[in-house]
Amino acid sequence: MKKLRVAFGMYDNNLLSDKHFGESEFYAIYDVYEDHHYEFIERRENTAKNVEEKEHGDPRKLKAVIQTLSDVDILAAFRMGPNYIQIKKNSNKVPFITGTRKLEEALVKVSENFNKLWEEKTAN
To answer: How far is Cα 51 from Cα 98, in angstroms, rounded to an integer?
Structure first.
């Protein structure tokens, strides 16, 4: 069965961060399956938020996020920052904007878009 590993940029245990993805308090890691069920894997600390940016959208922060989430396919956030376009250009990650801050609703949105996200992931 096909599976996508998804990192949600979180503010707390129930709400996605309203800051840029790299500024999230932590990441909630889930495996989302093609049959639309999902499974919580872990809470992962966001060490990238400690990177001191020389400018807004500093590529060093993007690199730190990618390293922290090396095993993840989809970067899901309520809002993405200046590195949003760079994620697709410079990594094998697929960015996804959830349109909601509620984690349960965001999980459903990822699940509903599984096929599209799978195609984007396998196109990388």
So the answer is: 25
Radius of gyration of the chain (CA): 13
pLDDT digits 0-9 by tens, 79-109: 876 677 778 778 899 999 999 999 999 999 9
Matching CATH number, 3-123, of 3.30.710.10, 3.30.40.10, 3.30.420.130, 3.40.50.2000: 3.30.420.130
- Asked whether 75 and 21 are in contact (CB, 8 A), the reply is yes
Phi-psi region at 99: left, alpha or beta (left = phi > 0; alpha = psi -120 to 50)? left
Q: Alpha-carbon distance 61 to 112, whole Å?
A: 30
